[in-house]
Amino acid sequence: MRKIFAVGVAMATLTLGTHALHAEEFRVELAAPVSATTYEGRLILILTRDDKTEPRFQVGPAFDAPQIFGLQVEKFGKGQFRVIGATVPGYPGRTLADIPAGTYTVQAVLHKYDSFTLGNGKTVKLPAARGAGQNWRKEPGNIISKPVKVDFDPKRAGAITIALTDILPPVVEPKDSEFIRHFKFKSERLSKFWGRDVFLNGHVLVPKDFDKHPEAKYPLAIFHGHFPDDFGGFRTTPPDPNVKCVQSERFRNEPCYARTEQQEAYDFYKKWTSPDFPRMLIVEIDHSNPYYDDSYAVNSANLGPYGDAITYDFIPALEKKFRGLGQGWSRFLYGGSTGGWEALAVQVFYPDDYNGAFAACPDPIDFRQTMVTNLYEDKNAYWREGPFGRVAKPGKRDYLGHVSYTAEDENRWEAVLGDKTRSGGQWDIWEAVYSPMGADGYPQRIWDKATGVIDKKVADYWRENYDLRYIMERDWKTLGPKLQGKIHIYVGDMDNFYLNNAVYLMEDFLKKATPAYQGELTYGDRDEHCWNGDPSVPNSVGRLRYNSMYVPKILKRIEAAAPPGADLTSWRYR
């Protein structure tokens, strides 16, 4: 929930001086009751004209988003200050001098870093995953200032002091209930890689009367996606009649999207507990890490062996605890966006261990269309360039094609939030997952963050290891027989992030693949991110039905692929 603060907050202290020759400075002081001697991390300063919510919760890459500045800090101790001055990079304005004079609500956040001595001996400084899904706005232990109103003028010498006073509290771990259970698993593979204990957490939806049927063993569906703080989209009570209704900015057909979400969650509960609904397990996995809110569920030079840890260690341990059938034919993958890429990638990289991937609006599955950039032929990720001019590449659109920011905008925004691939943003996590590790222990850049010039050697590494269309086509002789009937892809043809572009290229391959892939690939007409394959309902509703949408497809796969003598009865009690 976003915290609301009063409009009439106190003015920040204004200290006049002569040292700020070009623009007014912000002096950010560490004033919280901290325990450590000094801190390292990213100091983020936010300025906004909107005083209805805390500035930290307004930050985003759009052209009309709040202004942010980012400064790397080391040995930052209590009572000390750091200066956000004329040379500190910002977004959308590049420097303080670009900010118009006026009254702003201002807040600062210190996003703390830890030192990790990796298993290969390299030391890196990164924000540890501390329970909030690598969200710097609310990660426990981060230090924030109270929002204050300031009068700012870049032409006036002086300094505005902002005090970091509040330490964000720990996240309360979810508790078990009748239907939702929790599974915490220490991964030896990942702990060895990171040089400290690493845990994977599962939020498991168990079927009706799970405890009453100890004889039953169940199929398992893995619902991949971004960081889950608990199992989502499941509600045992009707919608709250007093729910606060707000017109959805994204879904124009939804005057009260909060009620729609609650109704869909309740409807799924009723379906889940109905007499004729098949009994199975569904798990959402928290595999947040120092680079992002999840790992992309594959092995990576920079994140470690998450693919093996999940498939070979975590899943079998979870099945043992919750009585899963524990066979490849009884495991299924699905998800949307990041989760869509993960579902498809895991099925491709572990073809014998899963029996189907239902991938909705997947992140780029062919790097010839990494949104709108061909990593192998384009020279630049930000611009299309001709002999006498150039045009910016878009980063996000709506269903009418209106662009809210460019690829360069989003990368500039990420560069302010963190250098060395440490922003926690979308482009940086692709880089962290797909790139080789550099000599300094951080991911090698796929392109220069300032100019957009693509590094072709890094692009080649991406292609050989993570370009799913390329890998499938390269290895189809051996992969094809193992993936028949398992690949299902759905995307809107007006996906906000142009993810349909790469799906077109995947379709070109799958249509001619021999042996035939025997799956499903469909497009939603004018549907945006993240269409799930159901044309009968608006995207705003379909995206809430991943669980119920894919269960019938799972049952179809079970019937087609279960070996002779497989248990098809113990889990189908009424």
CATH topology of the largest domain: the name is Rossmann fold
The count of strands amounts to: 26
Low-pLDDT parts are: 1-22
| Mean pLDDT across every amino acid position | 93
Count of the separate structural domains: 3
* Biggest sheet record: 10 strands, mixed
Name the structural class: alpha+beta
Helix content: 10-25%
| Rg, Cα atoms, Å | 25 Å
Secondary-structure arrangement, i.e. CATH architecture of the largest domain: 3-Layer(aba) Sandwich
* Number of contiguous helices: 12
From the spread of the alpha carbons, the general shape counts as globular
Q: How would you name the CATH homologous superfamily of the largest domain?
A: Alpha/Beta hydrolase fold, catalytic domain
User: Ends: how far apart?
Assistant: 38 Å
Proportion of beta-strand residues: 15-25%
CATH class of the largest domain: Alpha Beta
Protein name: Esterase
InterPro entries: AB_hydrolase_fold, Mycobacterial_A85_antigen
What does this structure look like?
The chain contains twelve helices and 26 strands. By secondary structure, the protein is an alpha+beta fold. The relative contact order is 0.11. The chain has three domains: 13-167, Immunoglobulin-like; 180-366 and 467-561, Alpha/Beta hydrolase fold, catalytic domain (Rossmann fold, 3-Layer(aba) Sandwich); 369-465, no CATH class. α8 (468-474) crosses α9. It is globular. The strands form six sheets. Strands 1, 2, 3, 4, 5, 6, 7, 10, 11 and 12 form a ten-stranded mixed β-sheet that branches. Strands 13-14-16-15-19-20-25-26 form an eight-stranded mixed β-sheet, with helices on both faces. It has a two-stranded antiparallel ribbon with strand order 8-9.
